């Protein structure tokens, strides 16, 4: 094959792929709008183009298959036959056959061998007005799960309008594609990549010149630098736009996938796409294509119910799958939502307990969101059987890994019987990004601005008192909320008096970051300026270091490492996911068993300025709520909490205090109250305390008998005499009409041990807490 012939074949392959993608969309749309002649004409022109070119190039197998399909479309265009579902299925099988042969031509330069007799006979039967049997079809309805995509030779075409079909309907399609003629050209992706690399080097050179300009003081040089800066910025923006593609380019494949899945699963699904014009870098388009396809297949196969089950649940028989994309905060947000069966927190909890991922005590304390995130663990699934399409949870760890590999995050939300929503956040591009430059010791680091929330600087007394130690972890109270702190110097091993190590100081720079929906503060010695950096990949010896995402060259020519915010959070144990968190909690439990005199206690202030404590394992959550949310029903105080009406008790009402009169809730107060939430069976009980002080590991040896009802006794915790609150009495008091029970001082020692271990009368509740 000569070079000219090879160029013709490459052009034929690229154009044919675009035509086949459009035919997929148009065939699905034709099912919903069978009277739309423009769709039929568009399909006919595309097949005619493929047939004519492959005949010219000598691809006889392609010519025979496309000729048979062209005959059917010709009769359909002339209204000699009418479109049917069987016709659509056979024509889609033809498209799959052509696509497979094109792939073989691309890899070998020759047509693949195959027997297309059955397919051509089916097309011929359709042409003559008959209805062929699909038993011998070449399995057109179920395309295999997508393999990692190869790099395309040209950007995909803009999507053309599509209309909904009976099994899969599509709304809000973009306007009709305009014939562009000679206003566009094909450019190889490798050439764009080379241009992008050159622009990156130009940006680095520009940054160096800008720094030199500030030192020279030459007005003419400064003017030339300003023009260079402007031109470089415009060139960078232009080249970036050549790599940006609408996300609709990959969404155009989903109507076909959805139709085939809906038919194979005997379901009816409506596909709604919003924000198809949202643009992001082509590299990211390729990276998210397979994860999105997996999520779509999961939603149809295991999320959306069959028409009969939906009707029994009071839902419309046709399910709804929403794909939504939009820009926000310098990132691309993608949502995949369905109105199916949703996620069952109880089944996830039971499966996690069965596999030993969490303990019964942890299962009782975990929120729904924490339970839902267990589906991202490798191989975790609650499905009774795994189909050949998907299993909700099976493969989700791969989806999450692929998203995090490109600097993105994924979150999952759902309600049983209502539906599931998966939210993905990814950067616009991985080539040139804005970043905040910080320094620790003699090294500089870059933090991507997409993960940065705010900067906090503490000076003088605020700096010395602003960092507290809570349960061995440094924290800062930021607007009333505890923010865990990570010291950059210590995390990166710069010990021995290196700047950034924990300790009293007169200045503290806190960079508030967000990793996987968890906020934490990164303490750094120096904060420099923000600037656009060119991301360079790390060498092989640094790729496995979890806290670095790449490197860049600064304006002075020195290298700065780019911090991976999520990796940094995991390395510092701010974010511990799934099995890591379970393993960590298990280690703490084992340590408590080996040192049974040590118990973890939540310490809070009582109304008389004393100290009280409860075992931390009995606590479900700690909350701060506005006082106005507390309502009175009869003689009870309640709040609306996580879908239930939760009784609320005041500590001053429960514990007899002779020196102070009981303080009553003022419903119109504007301040906030601190609430300790206990699990009581399947419900919750809230206890209002004066102030939550600390979480402490200490011995409960040698308890002193109680001096008043509602208290199990007194012990020394963290060097202070502390009363142990009777949690069981609190839970009993929360029952409607319950009377306050006196504690028998003779049983104090046993009660203290039972309270600290969650055993005795409260053993079952302890496992549920």
Span from first to last CA? 74 Å
Number of strands: 30
Largest sheet: 6 strands, mixed
Mean pLDDT: 75
What is the gyration radius calculated from CA atoms? 33 Å
How many helices? The count is 23
Helical content class = 25-40%
Structural class by SSE content: alpha+beta
Name the poorly predicted regions.
136-181, 390-394, 496-501, 577-596, 658-669, 738-769
Portion of residues in beta strands equals 25-35%
Strand order in the largest sheet: 1-3-5-6-8-7
Label the overall shape: flat
Would you write up a description of this structure?
- There is one protein chain.
- With 769 residues, the chain is α+β, with helices and mostly antiparallel strands.
- The chain is 38% helix and 26% strand.
- Helix 2 packs antiparallel against helix 3 (60-77), helix 3 packs parallel to helix 5 (117-127) and helix 9 packs parallel to helix 10 (282-303).
- The longest helix is centred in the N-terminal third of the chain and has 30 residues, at 3-32.
- It is flat.
- Residues 136-181, 390-394, 496-501, 577-596, 658-669 and 738-769 have low confidence and may be disordered.
